[in-house]
Amino acid sequence: MNKLTRLAVAAACTTLLLPLSAHAQSRTFVVSVTNLTQSQIISPPLAVVHDRRVELFEVGTEASDSLALMAEDGNPVPLADDMLASSHVFDAAAAAGGVMPGATVEITVQVAHPYNFISVVGMLVTTNDAFFGVQSIPAPRDRGPISVRAPAYDAGSEVDNESCDFIPGPPCGSGGVRDTVGAEGFIHIHSGIQGHGDLDAGTWDFNNPVARVTVRRAG
Predict the structure, then answer these.
(1) Distance between CA atoms of 7 and 77, rounded to whole angstroms?
(2) Which of 7, 63, 142, 164 could form a disulfide with 67 if both were Cys (CB 3.0 to 4.6 A apart)?
(3) Measured between alpha carbons, how far is 191 from 4 in angstroms, rounded to an integer?
(4) Which residues does 157 contact at the CB level (< 8 Å), separation at least 6?
(5) Cα–Cα distance measured from residue 200 to residue 37, given in angstroms and rounded to the nearest whole number
(6) How many CB atoms lie within 10 A of CB 86?
(7) Cis upstream peptide for 171 (omega within 30°)
(8) H helical segments located in the chain
């Protein structure tokens, strides 16, 4: 039967309704994302519900164009569109806003067998292309929550020049521009802010893990 899935995109402050095909009765889950960093803001996190064959990213390989856009500018829409185009994805939703240091946001998603796995990503906005990511958290079968901690990855799509000319978050505000010359070209664990550009490492650096993701049944 036909289902509708909601993608709340904070960057555009709009709600999109996207048709999906469901093969079983869906259940509602709540995905909580807590920012564990001292000063980095996390862009509105994107949660994707999928079967066991989906990966949003793979360490050691080149980032997809849509993942790179999310990691460089915090825009979840292209990545959500790519995911929802797959028959292996059931739902995708973004938080209603970014996640301040020490704060938590919640995302509501629908889960239906065999789409029993949830992956979550979001950008650390005062970086060139850092993002947190957790993949394939199994939806809890009972009322008990599942909680995991997420490291920061470097998308490898933009050089880590730490120049405010290429960083969307505070104190910079330069979204939609990128410097690819010298980029690593593959996803890897992020080395943090080194302080060799406009960013003071004492203020903007971070250690892993950078986020905690908890999945629980609603109600």
Answers:
(1) 9
(2) 63
(3) 40
(4) 63, 68, 71, 72, 129, 178, 180, 183, 185
(5) 15
(6) 13
(7) yes
(8) 65-73, 77-84, 201-204
Q: How many domains does the chain contain in total?
A: 1
21: which residues sit within 8 A by CB, 6+ positions away? 1, 2, 3
CA–CA gap between residue 89 and residue 53 (Å, rounded): 9
- What's the whole-number mean pLDDT along residues 98-102? 98
| SS3 state of residue 164 | helix
**CATH number of domain containing 41:** 2.60.40.2130
| Angle at CA of residue 70, ends 163 and 193, nearest 5° | 35
**What's the CA gap between 78 and 138, in Å, rounded?**
24
- Regarding pTM above 0.70, the answer is yes
For 161-218, write each residue's pLDDT tens digit: 999 999 999 999 999 999 999 999 999 999 999 999 999 999 999 999 999 999 999 9
What's the one-letter identity of residue 55? E
Q: Which residue type does 173 have?
A: G
